[in-house]
Each structure stands twice: as structure tokens, then as C-alpha cells.
Amino acid sequence: MSKYVCGIDIGTTGVKVMIFDMDGTAISSTYSEYPCTFPQTGWVEQDGNMTWQRTCETSKKAIEKSGLDPKEIVAIGLSTQRCTVTPIDKDGNPLCDAISWQDSRSFEEVEDIKRIVGEEKFYEITGYPLGTVLSVTEIMWWKKHKPEIYENAYLFVLDQERVLHNLGVEGYYQDWSNGSLYGLMDIRKFEWDVELTKQLGIDPDKLPQLVPSGKVLGKVSKEAAELTGFAEGTLLVSGAGDQQCAGIGAGAIKDGVIEVTMGTAGVTLGYMGQANLDPSMKMPCAAHAIAGKWESEGLQNAAGAAFKWYRNEFAFPEAQKAAAEGLDVYDLIDEQIEQVEPGCNGLIFLPYLASSAAPNWDAFARGTFVGFNLGHGRADMARAILEGVTFEAREIIDRMISNGMVVNEICLSGGGSKGAVWCQIQADIYGKPCTSLDVEEATTLGAAILAALGAGLFDDVEQAVDKMLKRKKVYEPNMENHALYNKYFELYKKSYQALSSAGIYEDLVKTALNK
């Protein structure tokens, strides 16, 4: 009987389920979208029960579409959005909606940590710069503003351990890579730092158990089999945070190769054999999905989400045409973007629609167009968004290089790698060759590779990646465009600094909250 593995990517805006053979060929792929809610300015929440229901429905469809006997699927691995925290009771029921990683309400808690622990000490322990994205700030927000939720919470969990438990795992297990972004884990020991939890007033018993990625934790239960379509007894393997999974699925498992994922979020990730901290404390040092290894990464809170925002709010003619003619609306938008010269006739976009993570770590930053004039149209806006998101990624790459990381090849994954237009924009802005992958969903492929490793189908991650990862096309940079982009890149950075240092962003947010 042939052997297959399944990767499940539970993201911010939807769940993707893919089934692969041992050569990395996708046998089937299904996707279901779901929403976030926005109760107040800067707040982003999500219904945890809904994400589980969508996971069940999408898994059933993927198995049906594959035509496989579910028993041929040996193991399941998860790639999950990081830092989206749900407080649960002892029966696993959510006590309220999850606070999303995109949520920026906990800026006061960031200041509390600075006062109690200190930024340098916090970074030294956790490897992460302080910011509202970290789960610790969300847990502290509940404790301060909703103490009844904190007290009644059995555990504060992410999608990884919650979904694995629902599938059949006894207990709640968090892999090291997701644990990194709690902001409570010792980055060298891969353990919860008990002294840090004590300082911040968080009960460590309310945190899940930490384990490495690629570890068999249980098997699909009879009840879960009925809900999902998987065979009872299928192995359940600890996966990783979505971006660490993307690192594996894109081949960023050795020096010289980094990956840039342009999904809802944008993440730039590079492998590290040691826990090297950034002297400026701007770049995170997190646990890789490769057990006992690390990665440097830069998080962008709204990458593909910014382009999707444009699609939803401005691309009405393209959406209507796409629906009428059975086309992809993004292909139609790309056709317009190609007609706009690099630099968008002097229009720059600061892509902080969900505040700024790396490298600024500014919870108050907001999306901004700079340079509008009467000659600009929707196509200029669309291209400026892609360029702005890529400028932010370049800031991260430049920081990695300044910290000693070698960058020879940039592998592109996520929705942003599907269109040739954005791939070429990235190559031109980075000034480096950019490689698209046969499976753009590197997060899901990475989860499947971890499933295969856990099931013992490969000896190590290098063998698995060599067998299952396929590259598609290399985009060489246009160095003339790169020279022009260098000028706009400097203006891009100056624009943010001017608005931030003048307190514009902070005043806007606080004015909107206080009304």
C-alpha cells in the first residue's frame, strides 16, 4: 500500500489541507476561508470553535478529492498561526474568542514588561523583542482587564495544541517553535522560564507542555475520524508555527538560503545553527522546526493581508469581471500593476495596516500612503502596496545581513509567490535571485514533512526536504530597477521615522480609542 502524509495549515484567514506522496507531489488540496472580527480599533479576535469546524470540513473534502483510502494516510502534521491565544476550560471549551496575533490592544502590557523585567533581560531570555504580537502580552491583558477569564482558564493555548487535542491527543502539547512566540520560553533550554512567569504573575501551570517538532503525540480518535474523514489510528505529529514550517517547506534548513513568505502575514526566515541574538534587539531568535536549531526571522503583520484589503475595498471592477468570466481577480490586478513603472510615480506605501512588527516593533504604526497626487490611480495604489510590503521585508533582510547572515538565495512562498509580478518586484527590490517553489504553500508542505519525519518515513529533515521540495522558477533581479528602488527604499524608511518620531501614529491611536 502506498504511503501518504497530510499537512494542515490553520492560518489567520483560512485553513488549507493538502495530502502529499513521498515525492512531494500534492495529491489533493482544499481550502476554506474564515473571518476575524474587529471589536475596537486595534482589536482582532477569532472564534476558536469555528477554526476547528473548518478544519474538520476541509479535511473531509481533501480526503474525498484525493480518492485515497484514508488508511493510506500515515500521519498528520500541523502548521498553525502563532500567538493567537485561546483560554480554555478543563473540557477544552473556549472561554471567549481568541485574541489574534494581529491584535495590538496590549501595548500597556508591553510597557509593564519593560518596567518589571527590562527589554534587555527579556530579549536575553526569550530571544524576542517586546511587542504586542507575543502571547504573554495577551495573557497579561486578560489578567488585568478580564480577571475572571484568567482565573477560570485551565490553559492558554494556540491552535496547534487545541486542534491536536481535538483530533485525539491526550493533553495539550506545544512545539518549541510556537512556544518561542509566547514570550515566556528560554530560547536556549526550550523550557518555560519559571522565573520569568513568576515576575510577570503568570501561573506556569496554565501553559501547555513543550515538545520538539516532529514528535508523535497520539492517534486520531474514533470521534475525530467521524468528524474529519481521517482513519482512526492515523499518527498525530507535533508540527510547528506556520513560518517555521515554511522554513522547512522552502528549504531554509542550511546557511545561505532564506525564505520569504507573503501570506496574510509576511515572514522572512533564515536558519541558524546557534542561538545568535541581535545586538540591536530588533531581530528575533526563535526555535526552528528542526529540533535543537534556531532561526532568525522578521515578522510583518500585514503582507498579503494588505493586498487583500486592496482587493476587497478598491478592486470592484476586477472582482466583477473575474466572477463573470471565471478568472482570478489577482491576475487582473497584476495586469494593471504591470503597466505602472517601479516607484509608482512617486507613491510610497507604509504597510502597517496591523501595526508594525520587525524591525520597528511599533504597536501604534498604521498604514500610510505618502506622495499622493491627482495623477495617481488605483493601479498605482496596488503596485505601491506590493512595493511597500517588499520594502519592509528588505529592511529585515538587510538587518539579517548586518548580523552576519549570508544570503545567496531567497526562496519565495505563500500567496505572494503565485504571481510573477510580485516575484519580480521582490527580486528587483532585494537585488538577489528569488526562487519560486512548485508548492507555493510551503507552510503546508513543511507540516507534511514533519509528519513524515515523525512517522519515520525519512532519516532526517535534509533527506525529507531533498526528496519532497521542488523548485519552479528563478527570478533574476533587474539591477536598473534595483538602483531606482534603492532611492525609494531610503524615502520609505525616512517616511516612517518622520511620522513615528513626531508621535503622529501614537496620537492617532490614542485619540481613536478615547474618542
From TrEMBL:
It holds the Pfam family FGGY_N. Residues 4-249 form the Carbohydrate kinase FGGY N-terminal domain. Residues 260-454 form the Carbohydrate kinase FGGY C-terminal domain. GO terms for molecular function: kinase activity. This is Xylulokinase. The gene is xylB_2. The keyword Metal-binding does not apply. Belongs to the FGGY kinase family. Gene3D superfamilies: 3.30.420.40. It comes from Mediterraneibacter butyricigenes. The keyword rRNA processing does not apply. Keywords: Kinase, Transferase. One of its GO terms (biological process) is carbohydrate metabolic process.
